[in-house]
Fold:
Amino acid sequence: MRIFVDTSAWLALNDKNDQSHNKAITKSSEIKRQRIELITSEYIIDESVTLIRYRVSHKAAVIFGDSLINSNIVKILDIINEDRLKAWELFKKYEDKDFSFTDCTSFVLMTKLRLQKAFTFDEHFKRIGFEMF
Structure:
């Protein structure tokens, strides 16, 4: 089984003050137990490292970044131009939603990879039709 991991999950795992921290730790244990492959994107990593840097500390951001870059469990995908253009069209289409551009890149990747579940606390994934893990 594979699931997509969103910024909200990475942040919750790394920020003890995050409202979803305890839920994230529990879900992380479940992921390890079930040996689920984790998929994320370069945009998510960028967003996550930046948020962890400002909400927790630079040291925590470096530890997090190093752990992902050296992980055998997490696969970090680049956003290729074709996916970026599809995400841009999606972003423009949903003027009435408050999806970020990074959300749209995630939706495009998940669709392309046929992933239905995301480890996230962001309701946007649910609104567009994905399951929240």
